[in-house]
Design goal:
The protein folds into two domains: about 50-190, Cytochrome c-like domain (Cytochrome Bc1 Complex, Chain D, domain 2); about 195-350, Cytochrome c-like domain (Cytochrome Bc1 Complex, Chain D, domain 2). The chain has a two-stranded antiparallel ribbon. It is mainly alpha-helical and about 350 residues long. About 35% of the residues lie in helices and about 0% in strands. Helix 2 (about 55-65) packs across helix 7 and helix 9 (about 210-215) packs across helix 13. The longest helix is centred in the N-terminal third of the chain and has 21 residues, at about 1-20.
Length: about 350
């Protein structure tokens, strides 16, 4: 009996292992399970009907966002220039591409893109996130890869063929599907649980400094000097702290304007040096600031609007009080309170969400 057991058990183990090995692999199938955005009181973003996010589509977009094979030498992904801890922006003034060359503008934060309806990039040259997602792949200063090569590399990986089946019903990978998948992931990047949001929902209280900064932020400048106002809300309005417009905020006098901004897209001289107004959500962690990253701190930004605005033919009318002698007359305490308020827009949940991290 002992000999029988000694022989039988190893044979049985080998048999069971062989049976497991012979189990046919379950082929991937299309999965339309929707990905539900946690709006927390935000308005419906009006997701495009032709690209409603699904759970597997968002996961595919997340994989592609962190996929270094989309770059020429396999060294760079979207996430290398858009880091989660920096609100999917870059702490460098200009991101460095695969050829070790700097870009021309600072990497914009990717926050609440589902609500951006008037173009992406600082100059708005891409109408939708799906278009925007493909441009860095091909940009010589960024990932410097052709879409054909990028597709070929993805097509050669079973993990991607299977995930494209789940997301789109076919393992044929195209540039259009890559853009749509990344767009789905970027739609999922919703930031709406900062201290300010919690305050709005009655869950926490603001400190005295934060509250005074909030009042300054949402108050107009009073030329009579009776009340203080920092005028911020005119451009950084709505729940998303941006008006989604393109504006010249007086960074340079006309002779010093080296970047045409929006004019590059529209060919309209009246839009020279105009750039997209960015959201201020998570602004405390997305330095440096402005399209060229010229300001390193929020204090420097406030100093600009207080007394540093420069006049030019296309500077926005809203800068009229900033341009007057003495500017907005903000003192040191005003500036400190404004910074304190802007820090309440930091959403630590967003910055550390496991669902947005590298999936590999």
């Amino acid at each position: 009996m002992k000999n029988f057991i000694t022989v039988f058990i190893p044979v049985f183990v080998v048999f069971m292992y062989a049976c497991e090995k012979e189990q046919p692999e379950v082929p991937p199938v299309y999965d339309p399970t929707p990905y539900v955005l946690n709006l927390r009181g935000f308005p419906d973003p009006g997701i495009p009907a032709d690209n409603t996010p699904t759970s597997v589509g968002v996961q595919l977009g997340r994989m592609l966002f962190y996929e270094k094979a989309l770059s020429k030498d396999g060294s760079l992904s979207c996430a290398d220039c858009h880091r989660q801890q920096h609100a999917f922006s870059d702490s460098l003034k200009y991101s460095i591409g695969v050829e070790k060359l700097p870009g021309k503008r600072h990497s914009m934060a990717l926050v609440n893109l589902a609500w951006h309806k008037d173009g992406l990039f600082w100059d708005g040259r891409s109408p939708h996130a799906r278009n925007q997602a493909l441009k860095p792949i091909q940009d010589p200063l960024e990932m410097n890869e052709s879409l054909e090569n990028a597709i070929s590399k993805l097509q050669g990986k079973k993990i991607y063929r299977d995930q494209f089946v789940r997301a789109f019903g076919s393992d044929t990978i195209t540039a259009e599907k890559i853009g749509l998948a990344i767009e789905q992931f970027e739609f999922a990047l919703v930031s709406n649980n900062s201290k300010f949001d919690q305050w709005k929902r009655g869950e926490v209280a603001l400190t005295d400094s934060e509250e005074r900064g909030r009042q300054l932020f949402f108050t107009e400048f009073d030329p009579s000097g009776v009340k203080k106002g920092a005028e911020c809300f005119h451009c950084h309005s709505t729940f998303n702290f941006t008006n989604n417009e393109y504006m010249n905020n007086g960074l340079d006098a006309e002779a010093d304007q080296t970047d045409p901004g929006r004019m590059n897209v529209t060919n309209n001289p009246a839009e020279k040096a105009m750039f997209k107004v960015p959201t201020l959500r998570n602004v405390a962690v997305s330095a440096p600031y402005m399209h060229d990253g010229r300001f390193s701190t929020l204090e420097e930004v406030i100093d600009h609007y207080n007394t540093g605005v420069r006049n030019s033919p296309t500077v926005d009318f809203l800068m009229q009080y900033n341009l007057q002698p003495g500017g907005l007359r903000l003192n040191a305490q005003d500036k400190a309170d404004l910074v304190a308020f802007m820090k309440t827009l930091t959403d630590t949940e967003f910055l550390s969400s496991p669902g947005f991290k590298n999936p590999f």
